[in-house]
Amino acid sequence: MSLDSTTIYINRTSRVPYLSEEEEKGFFQRLESYHKEIVTTLCRDSEGIQMLYSSLEDRLKDDPGSNRVRQKWSHLENQLRSSGNKKQKDQRYQRAAGFIYNNLSRKEIRKAMKKRIERQKEQHGGQPYKKMQQVLKMIDRETGEFLNSLRYFTRREAYTRAGGYEERFMDFIQEGSIGLMHALEKYDPRRGIRFMSYAKDWIKTMMNRKIWEEKGLKIGDEGYRKLNQIVIAKNELKRDLGKRVSVEEIAERAGVNPKEVSFYLSREKMVRGRQISLDAPIGEDSEDTLLDRIAETADSGQDDEAVILKRDQLELIRSVLPTLDQNEQRVLTLRYCLDGNNGGREMLPKEIGEEVGLTRQGIERIERKALEKIRKKLATLEMQRMSKA
Question: For residue 53, what are the domain limits?
């Protein structure tokens, strides 16, 4: 697929609507119902319960904060062993099922059910747990349909992250797909965040890992895992609280040490500062991005630019930035503090001119020219999209 055809393809798929909030809710309500049914089925006897708990134990062994979970389970286990009538035992099994459901991932629940089915086949033959086998098939089918409906969303993110370079496009699609799968397994609808917002964090984070690696951030698989946790926790908190968040708040949400938060975010910021990022915050105390500033520079009286600079089209600006010359990139970097230097402060055209040896008017001309290039490229992309409509 050539770069031009890729651009046209992305513009055409930008018309594909995202899932509605109701469609998201419906899918995850069904998913929750299926997995609760699996857990309830497994918790009807001690062997099934033990199989579920062994899955939980595998995850807890490397978690320093798992003592509370173990103590709770020990208490439930003692209750299960104690005598009582059928009603009392059923209530205990229900409590155990609820505890396990709240502490296991959906993937771990399915894995335990499949393991139980295989063990029953080995011991007794036939087709045990026929209903549960049907439930597992329904989960696979509906999950596949749900992911398929999001494929264009992932590809649009891949295109904007690839910076317009075709050879990176497929790599970013692969990383984005991995991020989408992580989001699907970890998403908790009870928190009130839309899945699309949650998934976007995971998709971007996995794609960013590729950028981090290319820019020389070498922290190993465990380091990337923690960095992913920290970045996603930071984004979630900013969205939930609507303000800048502290290191301590991020650490609590991510389940890591505050020192680790400071360490990994400083490494991520150092790498991010080596590249021009249109969706990075401008300055230390600003949530505005260069995307927002470019939109503000547009003459709202011009109909074509008003169309081009719609928020959903601004995502495509990333594909244009690498086409700017070095002077234009340098001016935009200093003007909007894209590299995180200068104490997070944006520089005035006069200050930039003094640093690079040009007049204030000269810097303003370079800035206008760079922003105009971006807008013209967007106009071309929009015309291509309209011609295919």
Answer: 22-145
